[in-house]
Design goal:
The complex is a heterodimer of chains A (about 240) and B (about 160). With about 240 residues, chain A is α+β, with helices and mostly antiparallel strands. Chain A is elongated, with a radius of gyration of 41 Å. Chain A has helices at about 1-15, 15-30, 160-205, 210-220, 225-244, and strands at about 35-40, 45, 50-55, 55-60, 70-75, 85-90, 90-95, 105, 120, 130-135, 145-155. Chain A folds into three domains: about 1-30, no CATH class; about 35-155, Immunoglobulins (Immunoglobulin-like, Sandwich), CATH 2.60.40.10; about 160-195. In chain A, strand 6 and strand 7 (about 90-95) form a beta hairpin. By secondary structure, chain B is α+β, with helices and mostly antiparallel strands. Chain B has one domain (about 1-30, about 55-150): Up-down Bundle (Butyryl-CoA Dehydrogenase, subunit A, domain 3), CATH 1.20.140. Chain B is about 65% helix and about 10% strand. Chain B has four helices and five strands, in the order H-E-E-E-E-H-H-E-H. Chain B has helices at about 1-25, 60-85, 95-120, 130-150; strands at about 30, 35, 40-45, 50-55, 130. A five-stranded antiparallel beta sheet of chain B has the order 4-3-2-1-5. In chain B, helix 1 packs antiparallel against helix 4 (about 130-150) and helix 2 (about 60-85) runs antiparallel to helix 3. The N and C termini of chain B lie close together (about 10 Å). The chains are: A alpha+beta (about 240), B alpha+beta (about 160). Chains A and B meet through helix 3 of A and helix 2 of B. Chain A: Keywords: Disulfide bond, Glycoprotein, Immunoglobulin domain, Membrane, Signal, Transmembrane, Transmembrane helix. Chain A: This is Ig-like domain-containing protein. Chain A: InterPro entries: Ig-like_dom, Ig-like_dom_sf, Ig-like_fold, Ig_sub, Ig_V-set, Myelin_P0-rel.
Chain lengths: ~240, ~160
């Protein structure tokens, strides 16, 4: 109605009277109801004795009206019928005071922000079941209620796929690590061989006994394997000398 | 030589297909009103088909992981085989291919063993083990044999 008055004020300045009257008449008609979409989770897991907040929100194209209603119903696992446990209407919440959630249910939502969440306290195994939230934002009333399944556990189970992924990732990671180490070793060995061959060529180029004597101790400061390699080369050279 | 080559590739691909089918098909355990695989545990109660995801057991995830790993290793083995076919020197052995394939067979064996030991906890004991489970067991010797052949085989050309 406020909207209609505003449009009439704005439009009245420019357009003819006839036109805005007809526009206002249209708005005063029983408003068309549009679809409303309600969202809850899909499945919630909780521990025994803990509290859980079941959230419910909705989307509709109109402003949130004052007549917005939220209602929650509960169907225990294995039961056929559901019972209403919560209703919000006319700006006041009405909670279950006789059923299974007596004194354990609290309204924590904010209807002005389209939030109809409830808090369930001190959960027990008997609370396993399906919670259905329905919301109406008059005149938008056409919508499907949304359900969330609550599973109460002694300990929260590991999410599906976590262990699978961990095992696969670990094995493939190990594989990659082995390949990397293999190529790294090959690279290092190749470099050492290259160095040795370079030093060998260098000695050959100089061809003097004195330089050799100086080089061998310099090499032996490193690791013993290098010393061995150097020693073996020395032997080779000695044998060559013998041949000569 | 060509026949041997085709034969071993066929053996490898057969093992791979068996692994793939047994991993995906929902017949690891079958019964009158239910069937389950590594991913879901489905049952028909009062005419209503209901599936439960395999999030409840830690061990089933280990079986999933082992089956997937065996598929991955078998695929890697096939790729490595074709690479080695062209790069290997004459008289060389397909050690790398054989290693991957034998690993794949060990993985599928571990998975099947875990399933055999642990399945009574997941499905009702009245139900029998299904054909996908048997396929996994058949894939194990196939993969092992093809892996051993890879190790024994020398490159001729």
């Amino acid at each position: 109605r406020v909207l209609c008055w505003l449009t009439s004020v704005i439009q009245g300045r420019w357009s003819s009277e006839l036109l805005w009257v007809s526009a206002c008449e249209y708005l005063k008609l029983p408003q068309q109801s549009e679809a409303i979409v309600i969202y809850t989770g899909w499945e919630r897991h909780a521990l025994v004795g803990s509290d859980i907040r079941l959230s419910c929100s909705f989307f509709s194209w109109r402003w949130t009206s004052e007549d917005v209603t939220f209602s929650w119903s509960y169907r225990p696992d294995g039961a056929r019928d559901s019972i209403s446990i919560f209703h919000y209407t006319g700006g006041a919440p009405y909670v279950d005071n006789k059923g299974p959630f007596r004194d354990r249910l609290e309204f924590v939502g904010n209807p002005a922000r389209r939030d109809g969440s409830i808090l369930l306290k001190n959960l027990d195994y008997g609370d396993n079941g399906t919670f259905t939230c329905d919301a109406k934002n008059p005149p938008d009333i056409v919508g499907r209620a949304s359900s969330v399944r609550l599973l109460v556990f002694e300990k929260v189970p590991i999410q599906a796929g976590v262990i699978t992924g961990a095992i696969i990732g670990a094995v493939l990671g190990l594989l990659v690590l082995i390949v990397v180490i293999y190529y790294l070793m090959r690279f290092l060995v190749a470099r050492r061989v290259f160095n040795l061959s370079v030093s060998k060529h260098g000695r050959k180029g100089k061809g003097k006994e004195g330089s050799q004597q100086r080089q061998v101790p310099a090499l032996s400061i490193g690791d013993p394997s290098k010393l061995k390699a150097a020693a073996s080369e020395k032997k080779k050279q000695e044998s060559r000398k013998d041949k000569k | 030589m060509l026949i041997l080559l085709l034969g071993i590739v066929f053996l490898h691909v057969a093992a791979l297909v068996l692994l793939f089918v047994s991993t995906t098909v929902s017949a690891w355990t079958t019964g009158a009103a239910r069937s389950s695989d590594l991913w879901h545990n489905c049952s028909t109660t009062n005419g209503e088909f209901h599936c439960e995801p395999a999030s409840t057991g830690e061990w089933i995830q280990a079986v999933q992981a082992l089956m997937i790993l065996s598929i991955i290793f078998s695929v890697i083995a096939l790729i490595v085989f074709f690479c080695q076919l062209f790069t290997l020197q004459k008289g060389g052995r397909f050690f790398l291919t054989g290693t991957f394939q034998i690993f794949a067979s060990l993985f599928v064996m571990s998975g099947a063993v875990i399933y055999t030991v642990m399945s009574p906890k997941w499905v009702a004991p009245t139900e029998t083990l299904g054909w996908a489970y048997i396929l996994a067991w058949v894939a194990f010797p196939l993969a092992l044999i093809s892996g051993l052949i890879y190790v024994i085989l020398r490159k001729r050309e």
